[in-house]
Amino acid sequence: MHSIMKRLLRWESALVMLLIGTIVLGDQLSPAFLKSGNFFYIGLNIGEVAIIALPLALIVITGEIDLSVASMLGLSGTILADLTSRGLNIWLSMLVTLFFGVLMGLFNGLLVTRVGLPSLAVTIGTLTLYRGIAQIVLPNSSLGGFPAYLTNIGVVPISHTQIPWSIAFFAVFAVGFTVVLHMTPIGRAIFAIGSNQEAAYFSGIRVKRIKLWLFVASGLFCAIAGILYSLRFASARYDAGTGLELNAVLIVLLGGISIFGGRGTMLGLLLAVCVIAALQSGLTLHLMSPQDQNTIIGGLLVASVILPNVSSIYARARTRIASAGARRASRRIAPHEGAP
User: What are the residue ranges of helices labelled H in 184-309?
Assistant: First the structure.
């Protein structure tokens, strides 16, 4: 009985209930929500964000953060468009774009792991830096010229299905990330780093190297998402994907991955992708304004930070209260020390 209750109280179970409630709500908001054609658009609007959320989840589990993901996506798109406009073969342009994605992630990782700067400060800085470089590459207008057979992947589902290509890529990548995180020594090391970085280091885990490779992976997958994003819109702009970093962070935290590190599952992240995709589709079909949608997403972001971490927050609060009480007690005793 205890094991059943524990399973029911798991965050993933709550996400399943939330997903069911979101689907019911979407059906109430619009009769078109459960139409088969809408499933394609549900997946299409979340595909690239879901891809960049995969490496971000592993980074957060180690206790770090990467807020430059949307800027790396946007810069990757502008690099791809600039290269193709100069006559470079589209496939070679994609390879070069992926290489630059790796460099962007490597730069973030080196600043965090080798220079020792906080990842929050670093990636806020590179968020602006990469967006600025994208504006230099492509200042004022959009740029396209991609082959039609590639831009079709953004508007046409996989043959005989309602599955967008971006979701198909995400599904393949998600399987790989699930295996790495939950079935390999690297995954166990990632959890160990997030739980206690110092203990992980003294147990022989290459903490800095693993974090560095995770930031590199983030840059690579942001470049992949940037390519798909540009092909979907058949053009690139320097401001493409602005604000998507908040959606990626929301997916990660709503999936039950602890902001304090050391805890989370890929199943939770997959369920969070479904919840956010269904919620955005329902609200859009209901003709809710972007401002109102942002308010709801902001509320979900706050809730996703607090609710899965109630026990951690409570434990930290108790520790601070106990420490403060000990300091007050020591100050009361101090004047009497040395008295006859």
Answer: 185-195, 197-202, 207-233, 244-254, 266-285, 290-306
- Tokens found for residue 198: 């110092």
Domain ranges of the chain: 36-305
What average pLDDT score do residues 208-228 get? 96
Q: Distance between the two ends of the chain, CA-based, in angstroms?
A: 62
* 89 Rama class: left (phi>0) / alpha (psi -120 to 50) / beta: beta
3-class state of residue 163 by DSSP: coil
Query: Which 3 state secondary structure label does DSSP give 222?
Result: helix
| CA-based max dimension of the chain | 92
Q: 3-state SS of 45-108?
A: HHHHHHHHHHHHHHHHHCCCCCCCHHHHHHHHHHHHHHHHHCCCCHHHHHHHHHHHHHHHHHHH
239, amino acid identity: D
The Cβ of residue 56 has, within 10 Å, a number of other Cβ atoms equal to 28
Q: How far apart are CA 240 and CA 173, in angstroms?
A: 23
Structure-token pair, residue 28:
């109430």
CA–CA dist 312, 278 (Å, integer): 29
Q: Which class does domain 36-305 fall in?
A: mainly alpha
Instruction: Give pTM, 2 decimals.
Output: 0.86
Strand partners for 221:
none
pLDDT per residue as tens digits for the range 68-112: 999 999 999 999 999 998 989 999 999 999 999 999 999 999 999
The answer to whether the CB of 192 falls within 8 A of the CB of 205 is: yes
The 3-class secondary structure across 107-137, one letter per residue, is HHHHHHHCCCCCHHHHHHHHHHHHHHHHHHH
* Amino acid 41: pLDDT: 87
Region of 137 (left: φ > 0; alpha: ψ -120 to 50; beta: rest) is alpha
- CA 313 from chain center: how many Å? 22
Predicted confidence at residue 39, as pLDDT, reads 86
Q: Structure tokens of 239?
A: 């401001």
Cross-strand bridge partners of residue 236 = 143
∠ Cα 6 11 15 (to 5°)? 125
**CA angle in degrees (0–180, nearest 5) for 74-150-46:** 50
**Amino acid, single-letter form, for residue 257:** I
